[in-house]
Amino acid sequence: MADIVKIRQQLGEKAKDFIARSRNAKVCLPSSIYSQSLAVTGLEPKGLEFNFKAADKKTMGLGSVKDRVNIGFVCLFTMLCGVSGIGVNWGTQASHPLPPGTIVKLLRDNGFQKVKLFDADYGTLKALGKSGIEVMVGIPNDMLASMGGSIKAAEKWVAKNVSEHITSNNVNIRYVAVGNEPFLETYNGSYLGITFPALRNIQSALVKAGLGSQVKVTVPLNADVYASSSDYPSGGDFRSDIHDLMLTIVNFLSASGAPFTVNIYPFISLYSDPNFPVEYAFFDGNASPLNDGGALYYNMFDANLDTLAHALQKNGFANLPIIVGEIGWPTDGDQNANIEYARRFNQGFMSHISGGRGTPMRPGPIDAYLFGLMDEDAKSFAPGNFERHWGIFTFDGQAKYPLNLGTTNSGALVPAKDVRYLEKKWCVMRPSARLDDPQVEPSMSYACGLLTALALVMGHLVEI
User: Fold this and answer.
1) Rounded to whole angstroms, how far apart are CA atoms 421 and 163?
2) Which of 13, 44, 164, 181 is catalytic?
3) DSSP track, 226-254
């Protein structure tokens, strides 16, 4: 496969030439292809008309073979640029993390154009400097109270974790994620009163720092903040217990030119509902479609995203940009968490969004971040035994399964390079130790807390 960057450059010139010569002609070209090409090339459709019915089938309404070839270039150009730069979540809850520089190299080798962080670790951000990778930096939930309670605290945080890295380290910070799924029902309302004040103060701090137009605030929310009253996407609206709060936040995001960020997990629906149709979680088109007033939904992702789109439209924010902050599939810890399902889901998702078709309510490229980059063996098992196994790479940066992101020459994931390994050691009990000794349990807990150990969970070996 040729270098994709060179291809994009060549096709970009072809698209510009074709569109420029077609401005005063009647061209039979799907409007979605044409409009996306215009968006990339920067040309305006002055005097251009579309002729969808009267075009000759052999020439597609154009007078030369050269023009027909150029349409092919535009179509291929659109296919390559249909995804708004795939991103990935970089979590750091690992007992043996790779050096940040190694991970940044891994990101670049695999063509990730965007990365979403859950905190603002200095070493991580510094390593991202001059990489060109777009960064969403995070404020953890446990910092929301201090950010919302003091504008000075917010200004200090922005100065240290945003301004400094942009000006001194040349980090391409584009978003600040204020909290992470703070309105989950399992949190019992712990962050309901402090999330919006934190959002407002961080936005004010960004404006004061002169970064209001460059860096946007957002709140990554779980898909449980909205639901449908009819089991169809068109019945979508925000959860009744937080409806007013959601409108306050959405209105603020809209006024600030900021996006709505949502995490969508078909796996969780399958995990929590034994009656959930398995095929509807994937993108193969094998599931019976959901017909919502003529709009057909063949997979849960499209239906879920459009439920949000309907909720926004119903409340007067039809054009608010949406970012899919997290989407992925784990490889262990549940009967449906396995290598094959993870590969099938993630490859299906990449293929699904690669053409830039979008959903019935939101046609066009989808801005998304895969979850996640690597397994994190220090995460809690509380959400489920699968929680440490979301990575497309293992903890040491090795690809778990074949996955074509459309960003590498080989069409395969590129593993981390120059990984240094510790000497292999095993933790075993002394032959003289007695199992009824009261010190056995605390000693095992201590040892497993310091080392990477294994346990049998549902018949699988998983890290603990």
Assistant:
1) 35
2) 181
3) EEESSSSGGGEEE-GGGHHHHHHHHHHHH
**372: cis peptide before it, omega within 30°?**
yes
Residue the block writes with tokens 């959002």: 199
Nearest to 165 by CA among 130, 201, 198: 130
Burial 382-404 (b: 16+ CB within 10 A, else e): eebbbbbbbbbbbbbbebbeebe
> Which H or E element spans position 156?
helix 151-158
* C-alpha separations of 242 from 143, 200, 239, 317, 443 in Å: 21, 18, 6, 17, 46
Residue by residue, DSSP assigns 55-72 as: --TTTTT-S-HHHHHHHH
Please identify which of the residues 134, 155, 326, 463 carries the catalytic annotation. Answer: 326
Record the tokens describing residue 319, joined without a space.
Answer: 């054009």
102: enclosing H helix or E strand = helix 100-109
Q: How far is 210 from 128, CA to CA, in rounded Å?
A: 22
Q: Identify the burial level of 448 via C-beta atoms within 10 angstroms of its C-beta, where 0-12 means exposed, 13-18 middle and 19 or more buried.
A: middle
pLDDT digits (tens), the chain, 464 positions? 444 444 444 444 444 443 333 333 333 333 333 333 333 333 333 333 333 333 333 333 334 444 444 434 444 443 334 445 799 999 999 999 999 999 999 999 999 999 999 999 999 999 999 999 999 999 999 999 999 999 999 999 999 999 999 999 999 999 999 999 999 999 999 999 999 999 999 999 999 999 999 999 999 999 999 999 999 999 999 999 999 999 999 999 999 999 999 999 999 999 999 999 999 999 999 999 999 999 999 999 999 999 999 999 999 999 999 999 999 999 999 999 999 999 999 999 999 999 899 999 999 999 999 999 999 999 999 999 999 999 999 999 999 999 999 999 999 999 999 999 988 776 677 788 888 889 888 887 777 666 544 444 444 444 44
Tell me whether residue 181 is one of the annotated catalytic residues. Answer: yes
Q: Do residues 120 and 137 lie in contact, with contact meaning Cβ atoms separated by under 8 Å? A: yes
Separation in Å, CA 452 to CA 109, 266, 344: 28, 30, 29
Q: How far apart are CA 434 and CA 411, in angstroms?
A: 54
Is 423 marked active-site? Answer: no
pTM of the model: 0.78
Instruction: Please report, in angstroms and rounded to a whole number, the separation of the first and last CA atoms in the chain.
Output: 40
Contact 362, 79 (CB under 8 A): no
Is residue 92 within 8 A of residue 367, CB to CB? The reply is: no
DSSP state of 358: B
Displacement of CA 70 from its chain's centroid (Å): 33
**Conformational region of residue 227, where left means phi above 0, alpha means psi within -120 to 50, and beta covers everything else:** beta
